Amino acid sequence: MTVNKVTTLPEAVQGLVNDGNTIALGGILSREPVACSYELIRQNKKDLTIIVDSHDESVELLLGAGLVKKVESAYVWVGVIGSGLNFRRSVEKGIPRHVEVEDYTNLAIGMRFLAGALGVPFLPVLSMSGSDIPTYNDKIVTFKDPYKGQNVNLVPAAEPDVAFIHVQKADKMGNAQIWGMLANDINIARSAKKVILTCEEIIPTSEIRKIPNMTQIPFYCVDAVVELPFGAHPLGVAGYYWLDTPFRKEWLKASRSQEGFNAWLQEWVFSWDNFEEYLRKLGSDRLAKLRKMERDNYQIPRIENY
Questions:
Q1: Would the pLDDT of 10 be above 80?
Q2: pTM score
């Protein structure tokens, strides 16, 4: 029996996310669930703990909106073009609120999601030895390897309450196809208690079955499926659209001050009633250009190529 999990993003966020939840965000520069961050802001889901590796706008938005109480991450930035100004302002000045930081490396965050996916309480890593990270993070425990005698660092499993993951294609049950950079998304989906999956397009299960090796996230991990073209904008999605660099630069400029970021939120997050209006605000010519830029650099996998 197939279960239709298709819903809207507002309904998924309202039904599955609570204040105080621990949230994981998929992707990394590519396929980050930016539209999901917009919706969390629109619904004022607050006091969130965010677990990511090295993320961009999807985290910066939530920080600037004052919804985050803690970040567990390697770093937060605006990939390629600049620093994470909202992150810095929150940590350094407590504006718009103080944010606690739990520091890891990218590898350590990945191992935390792997531990959560495996259902084990922790995993050992060799990275971070010789750095100050374990000194300032009491969640990292240094342990002597009983087999070789060297010191290893133990990192705790990540078990987010809700994960947001944006993919290229999915069926209505939640079987998700991903290509390009996978990031930690497979283990994020398996470690989270609930998964909200957004996708560029919903396709029939019969099409999913034609290329089974491209199904990176199986249906049993997923609680909600949302068809959301351009759901990662202004970041890109392999095979669909390129990074919107001018938009990102405008956003970064606005983020130089809290007042500027608040004004940006009013224009780009609160001025529309649904995501389709956001896309209309961007304009069809702009979106078509982003699609063309991606097509010039990437080909969508097709069944005849397998």
A1: yes
A2: 0.96
